Amino acid sequence: MAGSARPDLVTMLGSVPxxxxxxxxxxxxxxxxxxxxxxxxxxxxxxxxxxGVGFYLVLEGKAAxxxxxxxxxxxxxxxxxxxxxxxxxxxxxxxVVAEGPTRCLVLSSWEFWGALSKEPExxxxxxxxxxxxxxxxxPTLTE
Length: 143
Known about the structure:
This protein has helices at 7-15, 24-33, 109-116, 122-135, and strands spanning 35-39, 44-46, 54-60, 63-67, 70-75, 80-81, 95-98, 102-108. The mean pLDDT is 83. Helix 1 packs across helix 2 (24-33). By secondary structure, the chain is α+β, with helices and mostly antiparallel strands. The protein contains 4 helices and 8 strands; from the N terminus they run ααββββββββαα. It has one domain (7-135): Jelly Rolls. A 4-stranded antiparallel sheet has the order 1-8-3-6.
């Protein structure tokens, strides 16, 4: 995908709060650094306790975030998870499972930091969104 980010992918990254204040050029650099991955219905995308190595942006489909056999969120196109793994490689804090055929942009921490080595101003936006998410109450789904 290097050097060839689709315009719709760059636009979708702009709708992610984490990247919304970035220029088109900066979002393209991030998109070019990632890889698209597809997951079948029911496939595990990440597992609770596994080493976190990257950020995921849902491009198509839906992903269920689960902890202790309880659904805590359902993520669709334009939503994301794993942003903390861009800063550390601590274990994942939840399972994420594809609810149907799902496609994600996956950005590893080393790809992300490589892209940012030329774009240090991106860090402020990223930090503001992480703080916002940490302060927000944990969402729960009713069954």
